[in-house]
């Protein structure tokens, strides 16, 4: 029961403890009462912040914070759903330091620009032997995910389980398509995941698979409905897989876990087509 409750930490927003019991609050609104102290969970959720003797928080869901208004008074943090939790006065400095580190780490990750995503993909130039060169580019996975909660869960899952990869999220397949048309070979995504619920995703899929430059990129089409027609259309357009993902968030993470385990650790993806080959086939 306990291991299942914390199997996917990204699903947990915060925990509230009292005596030897703890309430686990999940991002989908569920609450689970467990006969274990908050200290028990603090040891097993090292990425969470102990903001108060009664509260343990997933930093991803923190939206804002307020300093203690006066001497011997508690500060507070606000979560994405509007929940406000106290921050004890003696923990305030430590929590601010932890939040600063978390924000720097988050801003260092690749984030998609809503219009193109290109600025996030271009690493800074550094001087090397008197010449400007780019830093080594971390391999990226491009994902179209309009659902904010699922997108956040995916970000956390990747950070916890595949830290050597960077996730680039797009709200629409049109935004991904625009970014893809301007990307350099060195910044080519290793995998693309499209949201089949968006009508433009099929157009983007067809563009990817009809292009000599992009067609080798493994491209997955996700759909939340068991649509035979959509699956047929997806495979006919060249999708490497058409996968039904459930609306239940726990099962959603489980499905993604299997997808990434296969494509990132078992499958051997083809190399990106070089500029010379592109010129030959153009």
Automatic annotation (TrEMBL):
It comes from the Bacteria. Residues 1-101 form the HTH LytTR-type domain. PROSITE patterns: HTH_LYTTR. SUPFAM superfamilies: CheY-like. This is HTH LytTR-type domain-containing protein. One of its GO terms (molecular function) is DNA binding. InterPro entries: CheY-like_superfamily, LytTR_DNA-bd_dom.
């Amino acid at each position: 029961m306990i291991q299942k409750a914390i199997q996917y930490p990204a699903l947990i927003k915060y925990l509230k403890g009292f005596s030897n019991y703890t309430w686990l609050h999940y991002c989908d609104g569920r609450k689970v009462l467990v006969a274990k102290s908050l200290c028990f969970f603090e040891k097993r959720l090292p990425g969470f912040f102990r903001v108060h003797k009664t509260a343990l928080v997933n930093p991803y869901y923190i939206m804002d914070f307020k300093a203690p208004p006066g001497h011997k008074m508690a500060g507070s943090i606000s979560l994405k759903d509007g929940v406000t939790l106290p921050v004890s006065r003696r923990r305030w400095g430590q929590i601010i330091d932890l939040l600063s580190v978390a924000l720097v780490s988050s801003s260092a990750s690749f984030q998609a620009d809503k219009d193109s995503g290109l600025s996030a993909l271009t690493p800074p130039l550094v001087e090397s032997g008197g010449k400007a060169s780019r830093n080594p580019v971390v391999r990226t996975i491009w994902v179209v995910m309009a659902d904010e909660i699922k997108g956040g869960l995916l970000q956390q899952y990747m950070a916890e389980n595949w830290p050597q990869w960077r996730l680039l999220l797009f709200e629409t397949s049109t935004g991904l398509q625009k970014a893809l048309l301007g990307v350099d070979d060195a910044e080519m995504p290793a995998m693309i995941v499209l949201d089949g619920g968006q009508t433009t995703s099929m157009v983007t899929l067809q563009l990817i698979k009809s292009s000599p430059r992009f067609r080798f990129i493994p491209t997955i089409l996700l759909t939340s409905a068991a649509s035979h027609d959509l699956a047929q259309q997806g495979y006919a357009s060249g999708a490497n897989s058409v996968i039904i993902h459930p609306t239940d968030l726990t099962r959603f993470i489980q499905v993604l876990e299997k997808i990434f385990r296969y494509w990132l650790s078992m499958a051997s993806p083809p190399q990106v087509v070089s500029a010379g080959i592109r010129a030959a086939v153009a």
